[in-house]
Target: Histidinol-phosphate aminotransferase
Amino acid sequence: MRTLEELTRPNVWRLKPYSSARDEYNGAAASVFLDANENPYNMPHNRYPDPMQRELKKELSKIKKVRPEHIFLGNGSDEAIDLVFRAFCEPRIDNVVAIDPTYGMYQVCAEVNDVEYRKVLLDENFRFSADKLLAAADEHTKLIFLCSPNNPTGNDLLRSEIERIIREFDGLVILDEAYNDFSEAPSFLEELDKYPNLIVLQTFSKAWGCAAIRLGMAFASQEIISIFSKIKYPYNVNQLTQKQAIEMLHRYYEIERWVKTLKEERGNLEEEFAKLPCTVKMFPSDANFFLVRVTDAVKIYNYLVGEGIIVRNRNSVSLCGNCLRVTVGTRNENERLIEALRKYKV
Ligand code: PMP
Model:
């Protein structure tokens, strides 16, 4: 691996971060706070939240078994995706490599940050080749993006290939595990201490059922996390989000139940889809959604909209011609979908 200094943009490496009032005084003992120009009348959100989300990280640390210094929290994992570009990629000079198809925000953030985005096509079974990804990288490649289970294809990437990328690439590897809770594959969080160039992304938006609160997680070496903390907005995770997330962490066992049910429902839905006349091919899923090739994705998408049911049309995505991406819902929602598709005339 190149050194972190070589991988970080020089302006970011040199940056002296903004120091907020609550960074400078973060003890609990005081009772008169006249340091942050807040309104003293409490309705009850008059005070700035903890800029480093210490209580939340402490609780999260117990569940994820990762020390708080290795955790960055942001406004969705989308914030962490944007931060990796801003921290490590020099616009118009550096580039990144990613599998294709995958989650669209990696490319959008690359374009916003004026960083070349190199796509390496998966094979027809949506597997990737470490050799091909490494061959697409050069001395200006700072990041490689992997997503497992991948969106929109739904499959886990092969662990041995992921490991090869982490071991053989001399830049940083972003492994997006947004859907890992639904997979049988162990998370790479357990490997964090072994790989100083690995950044694992997870989110509260999927298994945790908290898409509305916007809370994403990045796990990496303490040095990488310090760089994120240096360039993030001072109060990037609001108080309501921190409070709600702590509450959800205390209800961990309920989330495990949801995940179990959703995996069972995924199995039922896949079984029913396989019998539908409009289904051409099912792709195996390790996530809370699956990809299915149908006779005519545009027509079926529009038909379902007419029935008040919205799925995702992925027809124009690479390798996903005539494919729909279907999120697993409740038993009742899934039955409504199947019923509507049974009535559809191919
Ligand atoms: N990564 C992947 C693979 C996703 O599919 C999504 C959301 N669709 C995200 C990240 C973004 O998650 P968040 O809500 O945490 O920004």
Q: What stands out?
A: The longest helix spans residues 252-275. The chain has a mean pLDDT of 97.
